[in-house]
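Run folding on both entries below.
>entry_1
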Amino acid sequence: MITIRPESISERDNYKFLIGSVIPRPIAFITSINSEGVVNGAPFSYFNIVSSNPPLLSVSIQRRNGEKKDTLRNIEQQQSFVLHIADDGYIDKLNQTAAQLPPNQSEIALTNLTLIPSETIATPAISEAKVRYECTVQQIVDLPNSELIIANITCYHIDDELYANGRINAAKLNPISRLAGNDYAHLGETFTLERPQ
């Protein structure tokens, strides 16, 4: 087994080890809005659940060359955003939103994704996602080269075809996850293990 101390390698090598081994990672497609009303859309795979009581999510947004990304600045200003679960139905358009655009240009307009209003916050959502969460900021933690956002879910939106008896059908959701480089994955084969009593 190879043993490497993180401080002995470059940031890029640390990045490659992490994204190559912490897999698959769910993808959050986030819409946010700036003070001029421009809607930003961007994917993030440093994302997960924090708590179910209350329902909290986490998203880490790394800085680019030391500068905060548009999504983070918008979230800091508005204290809200919409988090969509990436699924197979709109993954190609989602990928297009990863392009680096100036703050006054919307990635949503570039991809022809369909904006719709939210119920509990001013930030609009996209209709193509089968699952989305309206979120408000609980806390933003400043880290050395990123910010960790802890978000309250204020409203769930779940496509009718996915929902039955209080549960979501994962196969019908057909989520897309992030691997390393340009690689992604579908849900794939699943199995069941009973927890020990």
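>entry_2
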Amino acid sequence: MKKNRAFIILSFALLVNGCVLAPGQRMSGEGLVRGTPTDSSQIQLVTITPQLLTEDNAAVLSATVPQALLSYKPEPYRVGPGDTLYITVWDHPELTSPAGSQQQTAANGRLIRSDGTMFYPYVGSVKVAGMTIEEVRQDISTKIAKYVERPQVDVGVVGYNSQHVLLQGAFKNTNPQPITTVPLTLGQALGTAAVNADQANMSDLILTRDGQDYHLDLTALGNGHGIAQNIYLKPGDRLLLPFNDTQEVYVMGEVLHPLAVTFRSVSDISLTQALGRAGGLNPVTSDGKEVYVIRGAKNLENAPAKVFQLDARSPAAFALGDQFRVKPGDVVFVGAAGVTRWNRVLSQLLPSATLLSSAAAANYSATH
């Protein structure tokens, strides 16, 4: 993969900067596609136009949250091992608070053991794991009615420890979050976990559910009128927020400060912003017509790399660049002006010519 990517970038650089054989010779878009230094089947040249941006924006808008996530509705909470229940039998404090009413609520709670059972006075060991709160209440009421006339029973959960959502990655708080009787939304989970915005890849939150991975763009969710609040989480879900240390765009060529630009989301940085972070085009050596974005060099076996071209010779062109979003792994390359390429050819030829001239002069002096 790395060799293919390096091959495309190197070939492209040779085409743009190294194919100068005479003063004023240039490499056009047609020459880029048909040039011999690289296989034309591996490169597709695309001009950045308003029509292209309209199509890209439409594609972004159509990328919605998977329906499977939006359609999920939480079921009533079912208790499990590790949960603690507080059972109230009205007018019978000896059953409600056997440790004494002055004790904290948890001290009078009933822990569900690892086998899914709990102990209750008079009733003994009761299998409650997998029951809803109402089912536990009815079961206790029925069984204790042998000892208490017309019992009025209430059941609540005072310790949630059986069901969780797991969190990994660029969160400030990665502690598991419990599923409770109050449904947990994705927005609430993210708020509790506190996203580390400086280190997170905001465009690729991975929600794993029942063996299926769902990739979500947090930036899009944030701008979607709180759509994250409409996604409910279920027990066993996992949220993985990758770090952005591999989220880079490489700006090189005739810019003032070539660099790798790190960003948080695929919708975070435009072509204009990437060029701006590199100090902009070099006003002396660059050719504004030859601003390129190389994309897809990692997947040449399956699809040709795309090379997007922006004619940035007029200020209005940067309006197009401001709407064109760069993606992780893109290479922004600015070609050299014709005179710059010719000067570089001369700088390589002149030392050789001087050396030959000196050798010829020395040989002439030796023979005369």
